[in-house]
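Lecture 7, part 2: worked example. A protein chain together with iron/sulfur cluster.
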Amino acid sequence: MDCASRCSGHCCEKFVFSFSLEELELISMNLEEEELVLPSGRRVRPKIMPHEDVLKIKDMLIPLDLSEIDPKDGKNLKEEIFRDQLDKMNDFSLLTEHDAIWIKNRGYIIKDNNIFCSVFTCKNFDTVERNCKIYEERPMMCRTYHCTSENKYKQCTLQPLAED
Ligand code: SF4
Ligand code: SF4
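Predicted complex, written out as structure tokens:
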């Protein structure tokens, strides 16, 4: 099978996830709670999360780095979020409480007048074959991920992708 006719695996190799390992650990210890306030101030509702997924994902994530660039599209987070609000982009003291909550609720981190995302790889990703090693048991978030030509990983070589 040539690389243009199959998933290239980039989405499993390096991806942004909206919770840190520490946050996932906290959530996993409080799965029956209606609401949990994370150290960042972000509020989550563990009871309505798919519990099996939380546990699987906590176990499979390998942190890589904090990045101001989303590895999927190569775009700068701050520029994307504030492209129509140059004043805020240049001066984070102008951020409102609503702005800060909106950013944190996406799992992004505000630091040094910048916005970062947590980048991970997955321990179930076979870097040689570029396949998922637990394909039949992969979490729901992986099963339901839908990529199209519009939102594909920038290095992805699969052609063509399904359309919306
Ligand atoms: S579990 Fe499988 S499909 Fe999901 S991110 Fe890991 S390697 Fe990819
Ligand atoms: S965009 Fe789709 S086909 Fe391409 S690497 Fe990601 S999941 Fe695979």
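Helices lie at 10-13, 21-28, 51-60, 77-81, 86-90, 97-105, 140-143. Residues 12, 60, 122, 124-125, 132, 134, 138, 142 surround iron/sulfur cluster (ligand 1) (CB under 6 Å). Keep this in mind for problem set question 3.
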